[in-house]
Structure formats: C-alpha cells, structure tokens
Design a protein that fits this description.
The chain folds into two domains: 141 residues, no CATH class; 62 residues, Arc Repressor Mutant, subunit A. Helices cover 37% and strands 27% of the residues. It is α+β, with helices and mostly antiparallel strands and 223 residues long. The chain has seven helices and eight strands; from the N terminus they run βαββαββαββαβααα. A hairpin with a 4-residue loop joins strand 2 and strand 3. Helix 5 crosses helix 6 and helix 5 crosses helix 7. The protein has an eight-stranded antiparallel sheet with strand order 4-5-3-2-6-7-1-8, sandwiched between helices. One of its GO terms (biological process) is regulation of DNA-templated transcription.
C-alpha cells in the first residue's frame, strides 16, 4: 500500500474558515454532522465561521481549544469535497482531515502508487493547487487505527540497531552522558568511527520518520 499527504488549497468552507488565522481545524465527518477539533489562538474566530457555515449543535471549550459538533455536514454544501475524487481514483482517506492557513491537509491511502498519481492529476486538472508533502510505501497493521505506530518507524540495519540499542541502554542519550561512542565501539568490536557512522545513520532515519509523522499531523501547532 501507498500513503500520500496532500496539502490542497481551494475555496471550501473549512479551508476559508482557517484562512488568515493561526488556528488549525481537524474534521471527522459523520455524514449527518461533523466533529471538529479547533486549536490555536484564533480558535474562536474559526468557530464563528463554522457556525455561519453549518451551525453548531454542541461545543466543549478548553484554553485555545474547542471541540464542536455541527448541525450539518459540510460535505453536503462543499462542491470541493475530496471524497468524490477519492472514489473515482480508488483511494481512501485517513481521517482526520486537517485545515490550517487556508489549506486542507489530506492523508490518503491507495493500493498502488498509480492511484495516488491519478488523484493528484485530477485535482490539478480541476484547477486545484496541490502540494505533495509526502508519498511512501507503508505496511498496514491495524487494530483501531488505519496505520499502526510501527508502520511509521524506519527499517534499521542489524548493526545500526545494535549500536543504537547499546547507546540507549548505556545512557548515551542521558544528561550527562553515561557512555561514549568509543565505549560503544569497544563493546561491539569495531572502530569508533564505524560505531559513530552506524549511530548517525540510525538517528537520521528515526528523525526523518518522526518528523514526517509530525508534519502529517500538523505543522506549527505549537507556535
């Protein structure tokens, strides 16, 4: 399977609701209404726009954070809904849809990469601006979520794993450090340069994978 994250700029209702704000909106559609999670310093401004669009049935307030249940589902009124494109191109949406800075971010799953390419081309052909934030092959091991946390982790070589395991177990990442790369190298019977190279490669893979996941969840939410 293949997963892609698209950032789509259009004139949809929730897209415009977050335009020129520092808030983000996450959407779970239930056909008859929407469940919305709005976060950020401009959350109330987004709530006002949502209420004008589809009405608000219930709300739960926390500091700079609002949970809404709407009166109606925006998809009934939004001609730019992504769902129709997904059906035509044999793709699946991985909820929630996220809206921020006047764009919506969609995580999409497909059985083959060609379906994702076809989806992208159709969106662009209809005059939609689409930025591909990520595209990758994934393994789906699902319980209550489409993608398990393990599918987000990179594949480490056996030596990279061994070096990383010793670094963690011996306190290399503690403050102050409990060991050195020279000591790790001695335990593995390799040179310090070799141990450092394996460790650096393992760290780079993990950082890239974690950042990709964070970017998929929402850039700038902590600002």
């Amino acid at each position: 399977m293949y997963e892609a994250t698209f950032e789509i700029t259009d004139d949809g209702g929730y897209t415009l609701a977050t335009e020129e704000t520092a808030a983000s909106l996450e959407l779970w559609c239930n056909d008859h209404c929407d469940l919305l999670h709005i976060r950020g310093p401009d959350a109330e401004a987004v709530v006002d726009r949502v209420e004008h669009l589809v009405g608000v049935r219930e709300r739960l307030d926390r500091p700079e954070e609002v949970l809404l249940i709407t009166d109606d589902c925006l998809r009934r009124h939004d001609t730019n809904a992504i769902e129709a494109y997904l059906v035509r191109n044999d793709c699946l949406l991985l909820p929630p849809l996220r809206y921020e800075r006047g764009a919506k971010v969609c995580r999409v799953l497909a059985l083959d990469s060609g379906s994702l390419t076809d989806l992208y081309r159709e969106l662009v052909a209809d005059g939609t601006f689409v930025d591909v934030l990520s595209k990758r092959h994934v393994n789906v091991v699902s319980e209550d979520a489409p993608l398990s946390p393990s599918s987000l982790l990179p594949d480490l070589s056996p030596r990279q794993y061994d070096v990383l395991q010793l670094a963690v177990e011996d306190g290399y990442y503690e403050i102050p450090r409990g060991t050195t790369t020279e000591a790790i190298a001695d335990r593995l019977g390799v040179s310090r340069r070799t141990a450092e190279e394996h460790l650096r490669r393992a760290e780079n893979k993990l950082i890239d994978a974690v950042f990709e996941h964070l970017r998929g969840r929402g850039r700038g939410q902590s600002q």
